Amino acid sequence: MLDAHNHIHSPRLAHWRAAFLEELPALGLRRAVVNGTSETDWPAVKLLAAEVPWVLPSYGLHPWFVNERTPAWRENLVAMLDSNSAIGEIGLDRWIVGHDIAAQTECFTWQLDLAAERNLPATIHCIRAWGALSEILHTHPVPARGFLLHAYGGPAEMVPGFVALGAYFSFSPYFLHERKSAQRAIFSQIPADRLLVETDAPDMAPPLPFNRQPLPEHDGKPLNHPANIITAYAALAELRRVSIKSLTVLLEENFSRLFGRV
Q: Which fold has domain 2-259?
């Protein structure tokens, strides 16, 4: 299995990290893209990738943290990158309180241009800004190898346009919540060669009946265990009406095109 997007370096998972770093390969996980979101956590991603061979590091300035960037954030990001890195999590978000869409756009377009210049895979976050995102992607260079719209929650009618630009779309076990039926319907129709799966652990936990190993957080909200990659594979296979075996082969082909050969 392959996890196209998570944050397993997060301090919220520190208590369980040693255990699941052993458990995940035994369950069948072969590669995971671990996404940094700000200057403060990029070093943790780099350290984890140096210690764990199946971790593919990704570095980006997330729209939630653009107001915390330092004057040297661009130089700091470039210093993190190498030929085995990805760029992300980057993007636009009008959902967060006090969002500064102008600053988000400036940071996003610069990082997108960097990904295109180096032909590095880019992982994109978007909430309530799909029109703005579409306009940017249609008017700026994008990586020739493509980009990932992680946990895609945009409109179905935008999928063909994004596909034409090189987009991949990752299915999240969070979409098993009853209120996410629209997302499940979209993922039943996305072209097979553009599908990936993710956990986004420790965020976006699936509903409790599908959550393999709920982890408590201080506010009582369950954390998303990265072993829920199994849940994501099983759910997407059922949704697409294919066997898990055939889905596994397909997703490895897709993952390899975007992120490199497994």
A: TIM Barrel (3.20.20)
